[in-house]
Amino acid sequence: MGITAAITAKGVTKKFGDFIAVDHVDFELFDNEVVGVIGPNGAGKTTFINLITGLYMPDEGALYAHGREITGLKPEVRVGMGIARTFQLVHVFDNLSVFENLGLSYYRRLEKKGVPAGIFLATMNRKDIQEHVLDTLRLLELESLKDELVGNLPLGSKKKLELAMAFMSDPRVLMLDEPFSGLGDTEIAEVTDVLKRYIRERTVLIIEHKLSRLTEIVEKLAVMHEGKIIACGDCDETLNHPEVRRVYWKIENKE
Amino acid sequence: MNKKVKTVLGPFILVVLLSISRYLFSSKMTFITEIAIYSLFVMGNNILYGYLGMVSFGQPFYLSIGAWTSAIFLAYIGHNPILAMLLGIAGGVITGFVLGPFFIRLRGDYFALINAALCAIGVFVFQKLLIGITRGEDGLWFRTQMSRVRLLDIRLPNNFFFFVMIIFFIVLVLYSHMNNSVLGSSFKALKVNERKMRFLGFDTFRIRWIGFILASALSSLSGSLYALNLGFVNPSLGETHRAAEVLVATLLGGSGTVYGPFFGALGFLGIKDLVSRWVTRWELVVGVITLIVMFRFSKGIWGGIRKVSLKIYDRDERSAGRCGRQRS
Amino acid sequence: MNLNLWITSLVYGLSMSGVLFLVSVGISIGFGLMRIVNMEQMVYYTFGAYMAYTIVTSTGSFLLGIIAAVAVAAALGIIVETQLLRRVYSREMMFTMVVTFSVFLIGIGIIQYIWGLDPKPVASPMETMIRIVRVKVPLYRLLIFAVAILVYIGIQLLLNRTIMGKAIRAGIENPNNVQGLGINIYKIFTIMFVIASGIAGLGGALYAPLIMVGPYMGWDMLLFAFITVILGGLGSIKGTMVSALILGQVMALGGTLWAPLAYIAPFIVMFLVILVKPTGLFGVRGTAFGFES
Fold first, then answer.
1. How many domains are contained in chain B?
2. What is the ipTM of this complex?
3. Which of these, A72, A124, A223, B97, is most buried using a 10 Å CB contact count?
4. B150 occurs within a structural domain
5. Is the per-residue pLDDT at A241 higher than 70?
């Protein structure tokens, strides 16, 4: 048996009515690879992530994580298998403190079975939760906001928090859906910085529609267009791919 | 450490204060007992409304499950009131466990209304269908069936008061612990963003189910104590009208907090007591209070108390050179 | 089988269906168009019944009573919609539910102050009996049903044949669309709300002679109305009509078999339907809380 990919997609298709959002996509993400997926809006990038993480179920095709089929599994089960994600529109818990947000994420990693009785006994003051959350807060330079209510934070901090929550769960595979969307230049620099520190020796898939921000992070690049992956490989190789030049370069040049 | 102490200390202070006021206003003893019992009921509803964000118009059903379980046990089977209470709680847990999977998958409005329907069906069952056992409108009397329990003879009102205080203390400590536990955080997180909870890997269905069972168990405990307090139970305990009352009390005290339900029960029963001297029916008052609370004081009485105390606390901290809280 | 009994039951059921449809169509519209759970519809229903009582006792004219009932109910609807509900359209459903419920409670309180607690009888407008297959049945009950049918046709015409109706239907499908078309959705909301509350008042007035008018008459009717709407599916006027027809017969048959069943049978029906099909008979699929998939 050869190397099993962390994520394998075989002929995955998703339709919304007549619109084919993802069209027979074959894709492999190997361990310790950082891959960026770019493409114009509506190319099916987010739908693709949603299919891998279980928000949508594919109409056709199959998905595997480290060789095990995950096609019909619920999102929470896939998370249990080590597939974590973030959302394009930031998803955090506004009514909890920064600490509690991270604590929840860390707790889940300890208890692999969903909801055991421990969920009632464990409090956020537990030593290991305290230590790990504080470590992560330090990594992201969010320590000063520890007890702040998340609803009061600016968007940039929320984005960083959501990343931190994903890191906390120590996933085998991490999917980031447009981690830079809605951020200003300084905040983008900060997030890039955090990502660079984190992604060494990890398996990450990043979606962006602007190429410029990805090149310094990713090792491999895939381009999606009209629901299909039209090229995948080293950054330079992909960008010089004739079809990519035709459909994507134009858009990138405009910016 | 600090938080662990707080978990026990808060409830302890509250129960001690209640016990002191029992001697200061000795004519109000039964009223204080009722407040504590009602608080438990409100705490159950608070798990649904305040923590999980589910409105139920049928909480009296779960109350009446506890009351009837205890009453039927005492009237026909046994004599031990403590056992009767435990059976009442068990009844609530089983009800929540069985109904949970069907109910919690429903959308918010359906959930509220199916509970209302359940409540109406419950009244019908206890009033008409089981009339041979429950004696229908006359109510089931069992005061004379209760036996003396070792240590504390809870048949005497004074002893019953302390019995309720002990229960109230235990439940408050557990409730306060729940608030700080991962479970409490999960409830609150679920309320604002269920999708994210699932993508953190939590089985949200089961968390909601646990909440539903806890709410049902607390309501039925309250129902059992009501039954033991009155010495009889009749079907009006489970009427749908009461669903509105418990919602109002939850809002009034401050939803989603540990001590909110107590202040809600205190405020609500207090207002009811005062108003009913002038007005026989007080729907108007309840309605107006709810609207005012909903639009002006969404944090309720306890929220207000906390805000004032936070301001004092914040001032101290600010003078120590810390930035003020951000607002946006 | 006793034919007499069944025909009486059928007619009784039809009149119940009529009343159920009239009081619940407003809730259905509220669900469908404004995305609110307007529990205070029962205030208009109760006020309608009381207006019928007051006017009929003082003037003796039932027609005047109905007109007054509709007018007062519609006026109350305007006040509640413009002063209160407009502030809560954008809030979550839980919030509007509690708010409209409080309005309902306040309505009950006001009624108690005006008319007191004692149930009031309303003189029957007609004693005419007609024959259906040898069985004498009260014409008035059939008339209630006829009125409900007329209202149903009227609403369907309004929704399908007028420009406002088209805007409303577009609004039901996608509330943001209508705003984009340059139509003032709030004006439409107000108009629909007034129509709905007027119809609820009409329902109260028509039902008044058959029951004792009391401050709490809205309580049970509230639950029945919601059962009707839920059984029929949210926002579907046709569904509301069909489920009113079903429930009316369920109540009548239940009552014929064993008196207490008349009250409880609808609850049992709703309970079972929701458990089996959580979207009602004609409802569209929605998400349960935030559950996807």
1. 1
2. 0.83
3. A223
4. yes
5. yes
